[in-house]
TrEMBL record:
Organism: Loxostege sticticalis
The entry's keywords: Cytoplasm, Hydrolase, Metal-binding, Protease, Thiol protease, Ubl conjugation pathway, Zinc, Zinc-finger
Main location: cytoplasm
Domain OTU: 118-242
Gene3D superfamilies with a match to the protein in the record: 3.90.70.80, Phosphatidylinositol 3-kinase Catalytic Subunit, Chain A, domain 1
EC main group: hydrolase
This protein's GO CC annotations: cytoplasm
Record keyword Isomerase present: no
Assigned EC number: 3.4.19.12
Subcellular location per the Swiss-Prot or TrEMBL entry: Cytoplasm
Name used for this protein in its record: Ubiquitin thioesterase OTU
Length: 314
């Protein structure tokens, strides 16, 4: 008998499980995983290996060594889509399973479960994080050059509608804004998200970890698809679903409320663990005079006094 340890990924984040031995049973494993992931024992689905595959945990009496688990492996915990209510008229039919290989059963032998875990993809803090994040959810890869095209798209849209995009909305004259947004040092925000949502025909759901809410851009357009961005008060990162086959998914049907609720839960968890930027304490650098400034109020004061409006993240 030897101690074993597993890295566990679930909707609650990543944790290390150290309380088991090679002689522990599948039932004991499921109990621990349930407490870590907040998924009921009846609905736990465990993925293991690369690419991750469902693990056969149907026999609670088996030892974990008998199902092929070895210390140091990563276990991904997902939740089954639903459990059928018990039938009283006749006993449940026996499901014929295919042989397992190294303790991993075929998909046909295990009840289907959710396709993956919603995760954050970290992109560079280079003043174009919003555009890089949108590029990732559109194309599935981090491309730090996409901001140039997106900035041009925004500038053309704003320039074409002087009535909507007036000085009151933009905070500066229309022409001045169009020149400003095309500078690589200029940050994007709600106005830019709204324009790109319309241009690409997608609902863009911004998961705000500062306020634990989701701001939906394009919600009133009845778009058929939705993407998710994470915003901590200063920086944007894209969200994606890590699937059991090793691939990723970044665009979701608008009617998929399960993934939407998972994003909501992520926002609440991030706020409770203070994974956001305090706008009164974060540091900026004026890209024109190289002065370091603390907090949003100080940056606004500096801009008003010097007319410098280009700031970088530090």
């Amino acid at each position: 008998m030897s101690a074993v340890a597993f890295k566990v990924k679930s909707k609650n984040g990543q944790q290390v499980l150290k309380d088991l031995t090679s002689d522990s049973t599948v039932g004991e494993l499921k109990t621990f995983l349930s407490s870590i992931s907040d998924v009921s024992i009846e609905r736990i689905c465990v993925l293991c290996g690369y690419p991750p595959k469902p693990l056969d945990i149907s026999d609670n009496s088996k030892k974990i060594s008998e199902i092929g688990l070895k210390t140091g492996e990563t276990l991904i915990i997902e939740e089954k889509a639903g459990v059928a209510p018990p039938q009283t008229s006749k006993p449940p039919e026996k499901i014929e399973t295919k042989p397992t290989e190294n303790g991993v059963a075929s998909h046909e032998s295990i009840e289907s479960c959710r396709p993956g875990i919603l995760m954050k993809k970290v992109v560079p803090s280079d003043n174009s994080c919003l555009f890089t994040s949108i590029g990732f959810v559109l194309n599935g890869n981090v491309d730090t050059t996409v901001h140039t095209l997106m900035r041009q798209i925004i500038a053309m849209e704003v320039a074409s509608d002087l009535e909507t995009y007036n000085e009151a909305m933009l905070g500066k004259p229309n022409a001045e804004y169009c020149a400003w947004i095309q500078q690589p040092s200029s940050w994007g925000g709600a106005i830019e998200v709204a324009i790109l949502s319309r241009f690409y025909g997608l609902e863009m759901a911004v998961v705000d970890t500062l306020n634990a809410i989701i701001n939906r851009f394009g919600e009133d357009k009845n778009y058929g698809q939705r993407v998710f961005l994470l915003f901590d008060g200063v920086h944007y990162d894209p969200l994606y679903l890590e699937q059991s086959d090793g691939g990723i998914k970044t665009v979701f049907p608008a009617e998929d409320m399960d993934i939407y609720h998972e994003a909501e839960q992520l926002a609440h968890e991030a706020k409770s663990s203070r994974q956001f930027t305090d706008l009164n304490k974060f540091t900026l650098k004026c890209m024109i005079c190289d002065k370091f400034l603390t907090g949003q109020v100080e940056a606004q004061k500096h801009a008003k006094e010097t007319m410098h409006t280009s700031f970088g993240e530090v």
